[in-house]
């Protein structure tokens, strides 16, 4: 299983298509969670070369610079981070690397027609030899067209709640626990 | 159920007792998660008055300042945030507010003698009229004496993993989902 953090095209609070900036703590928190749950790769997708340079600078500090020697845990976490300009590039790279079809599963705060239950995907991940790429949006989330282009959309995290504004860092952590976490609920 | 984010006495990477600084995104992410899962109160515990002033400034911006009008979701999330100088102060306040005994449940990356399973606490929360306060450490986690002074310690999040370095923001999110989340696993 792979995850991707998307920055374009995202919705702003009015629903317009925007490009969001990279958030330093997204990289740290999500890389650490990905390593904890043994995700095969964490793709940061951003269309701007300058943001790629920023990501590389952050990763380099924690891999080769002082951060890496002070805190080897971060070096290990960032080893699974990859950068792409587009989602298509990330998909092509995973496909080339694994030789498997890549199925895309979006996440959103609301239910969709192609909703898949976390429990179903958890079972598929254990049985199905295909590669699954779970997509996480930033800003106010993914655009309707992007959601429609995915193979599935995961069920919202807390559909019963009257408040659906988790940070993407929280959402990734919770979905990884639901999809790949140990059987704490048995 | 209540949660507390502790900043003293915490361990540094060598195990020494230290006071950690408040991290802005801890307040945001944890307040949003607490609101999503309908936690009764989120206590930020710090011994330094200057850090209290910083927390209040952040909260005020998102409640009364521009942040609150631009993003009312944050205002709602921060409405559940409280500040205390010590854990004892937070406990006394919850006790006075609810008239119930407050049971403390620590969290740690390692198993302990008084470990409680997430599933057991989940059931207790549904049946038991007492108040539960879940404690989260910052830095390299809570000191052994602090853990020993709690009523229980929750099982580690991913005991099967060879990597146990989640951010506190991730850990809080995952524990809230396991303890209070909807029944996605049935």
Question: Care to count the β-strands of chain A?
Answer: 9
Strand/helix succession of chain A: EEEHEHHHEHEEHEHEH
**What's the number of domains of chain A?**
1
User: What is the overall silhouette of chain A?
Assistant: globular
The average pLDDT of chain A is 96
Decide which structural class fits the backbone of chain A. Answer: alpha/beta
Task: Could you tell me the CATH topology label of chain A.
Answer: Alpha/beta knot
User: At CATH's second level, what is the architecture of chain A?
Assistant: 3-Layer(aba) Sandwich
Gyration radius over CA of chain A = 16 Å
Kindly provide the name of the CATH class of chain A: Alpha Beta
Structure characterization notes:
- The structure is a homodimer of 186-residue chains.
- The first copy, chain A, has 186 residues and is α/β, with parallel strands linked by helices.
- Chain A has a single domain, classed as 3-Layer(aba) Sandwich (Alpha/beta knot), CATH 3.40.1280.
- Chain A has 8 helices and 9 strands.
- In chain A, the strands form 2 sheets. In chain A, strands 5-4-1-8-6-9-7 form a 7-stranded parallel β-sheet.
- In chain A, strand 2 (10-11) and strand 3 (17-18) form a beta hairpin.
- In chain A, helix 1 crosses helix 4, helix 1 (24-36) runs parallel beside helix 8 (168-180) and helix 6 crosses helix 8.
- The two termini of chain A are 23 Å apart.
- At the A-B interface, helix 1, helix 4 and helix 8 of A face helix 1, helix 4 and helix 8 of B.
